[in-house]
């Protein structure tokens, strides 16, 4: 039902109205221990056509009009046919078009915030094969964490890619686990009031703690590390502004609110005043339950010759230039 609503352009009504369409006929299911049940597979491949930041031509307009939406539908259909006819036919298809003009909903113009002076200095030190300005690759330190098959980091792991968009939720008393297809992550989130770890213990994906506010799962994540290796965006996110750094002060607040049998609203506020001139930005999108979606093993290290090939090619090019 949710995919039918989205295909008809229901998202243009706003997430709140979309949620209310289910409210009269649906009751939030509970786990056997009494917590809201959000288990299942909620892939975000339907967001492939929604850029992270908004095209300036839309200004502060969050939704496409009917004519623009028709064009987006045609574009998504052509993209899916082209992608599915390739060498990996099981690769993700968006399947439906969305009316959202960007995943970022705040600032109002949907653009990624300007960086502080500190943020710009950090960005200049970032290294990634996704940075078109970077031409020299000589050591492992010239590659991002994703290049090295370690992690996409946060908040990138909750943003779409053009494939491997599976997200699966598991629950047990006092815990929620979010399993991510891309980069084989498992976010283990205590919801039992467990105190945070010492702030000296830093992790690639940060440290998450969750609690329930009614039917909404609220997750706060702090204690991040390696912000130059992961960052707030990457070239793999459609419509992203390229690699953007994050500091050790990064703080992310997520809200997951199930609104129907196959619908859930997602909101993510990313705060990092040391890097972002505005201090923060907000992402928002609907999630769609699809338990038929198949999540395959992400065996990135097996046969990964990219790092060696980049280094060997870069060294060869520089040697040729020297001659």
Write up this protein.
The chain has 323 residues and is α+β, with helices and mostly antiparallel strands. The protein has one domain (2-322). Helix content is 18%, strand content 20%. It contains five helices and ten strands, in the order H-H-E-H-E-H-E-E-E-E-E-E-E-E-H. Strands 2-10-9-8-7-6 form a six-stranded antiparallel beta sheet. A four-stranded antiparallel beta sheet has the order 1-3-4-5, with no helix packed on it. Strand 3 (167-172) and strand 4 form a beta hairpin.
Keywords:
323 residues; alpha+beta; four-stranded antiparallel β-sheet; 10 strands
Question: TL;DR of this structure?
Answer:
By secondary structure, this protein is α+β, with helices and mostly antiparallel strands. Helix content is 18%, strand content 20%.
Low-confidence stretches: 7-22
Alpha plus pi helix count: 5
Q: How many E strands?
A: 10
Kindly estimate the percentage of residues that lie in beta strands according to DSSP.
15-25%
Distance between the termini: 64 Å
Q: Secondary-structure element order, as H and E?
A: HHEHEHEEEEEEEEH
Mean pLDDT: 88
Can you tell me the overall shape? globular
Structural class comes to alpha+beta
User: How do the strands line up in the largest sheet?
Assistant: 2-10-9-8-7-6
> How is the biggest beta sheet arranged?
6 strands, antiparallel
* Whole-number total of structural domains: 1
Radius of gyration: 20 Å
* Secondary structure: helix percent: 10-25%
